[in-house]
Specification:
- The complex is a heterodimer of chains A (197) and B (148).
- Chain A has one domain.
- The longest helix of chain A has 24 residues.
- Helices cover 31% and strands 32% of the residues of chain A.
- With 197 residues, chain A is α+β, with helices and mostly antiparallel strands.
- Chain B has 148 residues and is of the alpha+beta class.
- Chain B folds into two domains: 60 residues; 74 residues.
- Helix content of chain B is 47%, strand content 37%.
- Chain B is built from three helices and six strands, in the order βααβββαββ.
- In chain B, helix 1 packs antiparallel against helix 2.
- Classes of the chains: A alpha+beta (197), B alpha+beta (148).
- At the A-B interface, helix 2 and strand 8 of A face strand 1, helix 1, helix 2, strand 2 and helix 3 of B.
């Protein structure tokens, strides 16, 4: 056993997660859709951090070149009615290499109110996302957290109640997976709390 | 739909190449027949570029109107009742047909149908029972922006 398999086995054992050889997550977020079968392999499920449960797994797909991510998926069902889509993607990350169309559906708008976040992330939402809700979600505490705490490549996608945190790495090691899970759980808890208020 | 940088580049390419083909042969001293053949092809390029530019302008105007509804509209919700795929795609994005129950405070509930071009992942997530935010035009509540 080597690479991600060994890392995930060790990580699952250390954190008390249920190891799963492979798991189909479904076409829940744009990153998962890029992968043909939306499958993570290997994977583990259980408590990711705090009070947040979910799935963590290795995602690989090829679109002209091979992309390898480690992802953590959490359900936040109450978020759809307030924020159908919210993407916070590390600046410069590429998830596909074959998009050449001149017209596209008007499906996103950049949210640029935080310079601290702009330095690190590209944040986009539906063009008609409530800006007041966004300001409340991105409190100074969350902005400070996202700007300083998560792993270097951390990004997240919230789409219709599914939150997917990710880092692009062949094998981040157990510490890298722990950091991914902690960051995803932190963001999930913050979004869930904001949706509940 | 909205134009992106690739689209701007394509329009510029069509127009500039078309203009070059219209006037280039004559300026370079080509014979009349060659100038007419190349020039007429260039004119078609210019017309295609102009058509795309007009479409982009129309899309921009429509987007501005939707922005107005979003900023000035009445916030409500839209519950998806039925999802249909038209089997038509625009740049790999499916055109979805949604039957919705629109609930706008002060206006009431109504059933409406909406067609939207959506990215694949969004289209896959549209399902009966999903509740989405919506903003209705205060001057004409039948006109609304669906937040998806």
């Amino acid at each position: 056993m080597a690479g991600p398999d060994a890392t995930y086995a060790a990580f699952a054992a250390a954190r008390g997660l249920e190891p799963v050889p492979a798991l189909g997550l479904g076409a829940l977020t744009p990153l998962l859709v890029e992968s043909k079968h939306c499958q993570v392999e290997p994977a583990a499920r259980g408590r990711l951090g705090g009070e947040v449960d979910g799935v963590v797994g290795h995602l690989a797909y090829t679109r002209n070149r091979t992309f390898r991510f480690n992802v953590a998926l959490v359900d936040i069902p109450g978020s759809t009615a307030l924020a159908p889509r919210l993407f916070c993607i590390r600046n410069g990350r590429s998830t596909r290499d074959d998009e050449f169309y001149g017209f596209e559906a008007r499906h996103s708008k950049l949210w640029t109110e935080s310079t601290a976040l702009n330095d690190r992330y590209t944040i986009s939402t539906s063009p008609y996302q409530d800006p007041n809700w966004m300001r409340q979600l991105f409190s100074p505490a969350l902005v400070d957290y996202l700007a300083t705490e998560p792993p270097a490549d951390f990004s997240f996608e919230l789409a219709y109640g599914a939150l997917l945190g990710s880092v692009e790495d062949d094998d981040p090691g157990a510490d890298g997976l722990a950091a991914l899970c902690e960051a995803t759980a932190h963001v999930a808890a913050r979004i869930a709390r904001e949706c509940g208020e | 739909m909205q134009i992106n940088r690739t689209g701007v580049g394509l329009i510029a390419l069509f127009v500039l190449l078309g203009l070059a083909m219209c006037f280039g042969p004559a300026l370079l001293g080509a014979d009349l027949e060659t100038s007419l053949i190349v020039g007429s092809t260039g004119a078609i390029f210019v017309l295609v570029g102009a058509g795309l530019a007009l479409y982009a302008r129309h899309a921009k105007g429509k987007a501005a109107h939707q922005d107005w509804i979003f900023q000035n509209g009445i916030k409500g919700s839209a519950t998806i009742l039925e999802v249909g795929n038209s089997h038509t795609t625009v740049n790999e994005m499916p055109l979805m047909k949604l039957k919705l129950e629109l609930d706008v405070p002060g206006v009431g509930r109504s059933q409406v149908t909406r067609r939207e071009v959506m990215p694949v992942f969004t289209a896959n997530r549209m399902d009966a029972g999903l509740v989405l935010p919506a903003y209705a035009n205060p001057e004409n509540p039948a006109e609304f922006v669906l937040v998806w």
